Amino acid sequence: MAIEHDYFGLLESGPDGSIFWSESVDLGDQRVTVDLTAPDQDDVSAAALDVAAAMISSIEDIDMQARNAMVDELDDRTSEVIEYILQQQAQLGESIEDVLVDISGDVHVDIIRSLQLVSMTILADEHGGSDPFAVLEYALDPDATDEVLLVNLTSDGAVQSVTSAD
What we know:
By secondary structure, the chain is α+β, with helices and mostly antiparallel strands. The protein has helices spanning 46-57, 59-72, 80-92, 107-114; strands at residues 2-5, 9-12, 19-27, 30-38, 116-123, 134-139, 149-153, 159-164. It has a 6-stranded mixed sheet with strand order 3-4-5-6-7-8, with helices on one face.
């Protein structure tokens, strides 16, 4: 079976009924991998695909919203954002300034600004549910796959949580 959508084209299911779509999109001067997945195509609605397409099309706005959510967590000394920042500072030491895209004097905000959006995974079967509909993966070093922050979004685009990969 298959699902046809204006944005995604023909989404064919695998032998197990799952669907998967992947593309790279531009965000400023970087490429972001966008994956759409669902374990069972029967759980994917046209509305879910419309929302997913809208999220991909407005990835710049979603990125800004996710970064603002990270900044909002800077007030909570026990947040995973703070833990991630402290870990990066300890690991990189003085050389952290080499990875910062802007040095404003507030190193925590500078690190958040310098994070690269590595990927966006859309869990199309979670439309309208309580689990994340989209997960954005951020890293200072895109090759360090264990040292990332994940921003979970609901299907209406609201930030649900910010967590680390571990």
